[in-house]
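--- STAGE predict ---
source: upstream dedup step, 1 unique chain passed
mode: sequence only
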Amino acid sequence: MLNRASFFFRVRTAILIFLLSPAIGVRGQDVAAFHNYLNRFVVFDQGKFVELEQLPVLDFKVRANMVVYLTNDNRLKVYQNGKKEQLTEFFEYYKVGEDFVVWEFRRQVYMFSKGQTQLICDWCNADGSDSLMRLIKNPGSKMEIYYSGKFYPLTEGVETTGILSYKFDKNIFSYVDAGQNLRIFYRGELFDPGVIQPGKYQVGADIVAWIDPFENSLKAFFKNEVVVLDNQVPKNFRTADGMVAWVDNGGYYKIFYGGKVRELATFEPEKWTLKDEILAFELNRLFFVFYKGEVKMLEEIPPKAFSIERNTLFYIDAYGRLAGFSAGEHKKNLSLEPIFDLQSQRGVVLYKTGNNTQHVFWKGKSYVY
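--- STAGE serialize ---
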């Protein structure tokens, strides 16, 4: 059993990681965004096209229920629930999470979430990524994590320079502290898996996998327990939602799923991608997926490119048409003609046909702009 690390509450510095809700699941995606042939900024919203800006935007991010973008004159705006609004024109830094926007101005950090804007940190400096914000208030202070609307201390006695490395996913945050100990924050609790000087480590929703340098093995933290996946160091490994896939020392291709190790092949695939709950891979020039414990062959000719977003895989087949795999079902000929410029925005698919005609594929139907 793992030991839960103690919590400490005198905090001056914050590492904020805005994770998804504790229960991982696919949420509805009804919006997408693109620039049209006139370079105007357009949003697709539940079957309708809405022109938001006449000038091209500088940047935009599409999330589960909103589009956040930076206008041509550097104003930060959001489109949500059928309307757009300006968040601010004064910012030095901004990041977009699954259902929030965070920005900094003059060492104050603000968050927009659920239609409201609030000041979350005063006199701070911020950096981070789409899902993690590191807020430094005072050199030499301790650190905490922000999760589901609450602050949680990470560890005692760790200064702002005390985290050597960190990685995170939807509901889990893992880091190596100044003592070279691997720590894991998961569902509101901090765990010490008893790992010192971990080798390479990877994080996926509900799971952390690492190389144990003392036992020369591959291990994982899964459902609050440490599990030995392989008694030898693998050639490589990757993680996703509750899964670890790897090529072992003898070249066998394996996966850990549902608490069990399974052998997928006796040799390494030519290509493989692990994301969300889908593993896509090529073996002997055949294209396969592993999903919910089952392997399915999708194509005899592997696609040149594909996209996995929100547990849905889309690709262009050998005939140039749109095909996909979702919820265990393989569907072909989703477009009536050859397509190009395929991109997926959180499960909503954009592609073009013919003379640059823009299409959006949403909920089994193609919409033409």
